[in-house]
Design a protein that fits this description.
By secondary structure, the protein is of the alpha/beta class. The protein is 29% helix and 15% strand. It is elongated.
């Protein structure tokens, strides 16, 4: 019997082995994970996506990271990749993910996944599958932060780059891709430390400049951390005990993959990501009290496990 095939198309301008433009990594992972989840559930053959993207504007807008993503992942034998993928993408009849409501695909057809529909919802409870597979395809050099023996208890993700500075608190709450004030991060960290009664060690992950982050980086036991790539930073943040997040799917992926309790700016907790303890995530505004659960989370000896870590060497 002929197989059914699936393909996560990551950009409109997708040329099988590279793309022109497209979303950032956090958004791309939604398409990949949704396709992965459906493919494993239905026993479809999954085709390796075109991760590499040529983004001319990023050389101007994001000089810190051109966001090409071509060197982050490597396919396992469970994917159709390399030259073998081209005939499938050229000649198989494609149906969209939306067409599945009309009935299951016919043998030999290719189901194409696009976009961020539902974000985490379609695969939310398939965490072990998504996390294990993401770690399996991530190149070894990007796993350094995830495999660290002593990750910082607290992580702050501060998105700058192409995010927009809003004119008011209400504008930040109501609009996506908002640049959150550095003062909010500082106040959140100070409040957490006041509650716990000590300057708990904190790692800052950011695409901002040293000048932009200077007031935060001058604080005691605060250190900027860079692991060299977007996926490396996401995975490193996933090992924290508490995350103070940004208005970015980048932060959300770290919280989801590591089941890391989160402090979010008002309007930015888009979906509940904590599967077993949904109370361990909250929106917080300056002047509010921190939730009671923050102290036991940071005082616990829990370091998020490295479940799903690869158990075999993959040729890099």
């Amino acid at each position: 019997m002929k197989a059914v095939f699936s393909y996560p198309r990551l950009s409109k301008a997708d040329f099988a082995y590279f793309r022109i433009g497209g979303n950032g990594l956090g958004n791309l992972l939604f398409t990949w994970a949704r396709c992965l989840s459906a493919s494993r559930r239905n026993h479809w053959r999954m085709i390796w996506p075109a991760w590499y993207s040529h983004k001319p504007k990023n050389k101007r807008v994001n000089p810190y990271d051109h966001r090409t993503y071509g060197d982050l992942f490597i396919p396992t034998n469970e994917y159709i990749s390399g030259l073998a993928k081209l005939p499938h993408l050229l000649f198989r009849r494609r149906i969209s993910e939306a067409q599945l409501v009309q009935g299951p695909p016919k043998p030999g057809q290719l189901v194409q996944f696009r976009g961020m529909e539902g974000k985490f919802e379609p695969f939310l409870h398939n965490l072990e599958l998504v996390r294990t597979e993401l770690l399996r395809i991530t190149r070894n050099r990007h796993l350094v932060g995830y495999l660290a023996d002593d990750p910082a208890p607290l992580a702050l993700h501060i998105r700058r780059g192409d995010f927009l500075r809003r004119g008011s608190f209400d504008d930040i709450v109501q609009n996506r891709n908002s640049l959150l004030p550095l003062e909010w991060y500082i106040a959140a960290l100070e409040q957490v430390r006041e509650n716990i009664g000590k300057p708990v060690r904190a790692s800052v992950f950011s695409d901002g400049t040293a000048e932009e982050l200077a007031p935060l980086l001058r604080m005691k036991r605060v250190q900027r951390v860079e692991y060299g790539s977007s996926i490396a930073d996401i995975l490193a943040m996933a090992r924290s005990r508490l995350l103070i997040g940004s208005d970015s799917t980048f932060s959300q992926w770290a919280s989801y993959l590591g089941q890391v309790p989160g402090i979010w700016h008002p309007g930015k907790l888009k979906q509940s990501l904590m599967l077993l303890q949904p109370a361990l995530e909250t929106e917080w505004a300056q002047g509010d009290s921190m939730p009671d659960w923050v102290v036991p989370v940071l005082e616990s000896d829990r370091t998020p496990s490295r479940r799903g870590s690869p158990t075999m060497e993959i040729e890099q």
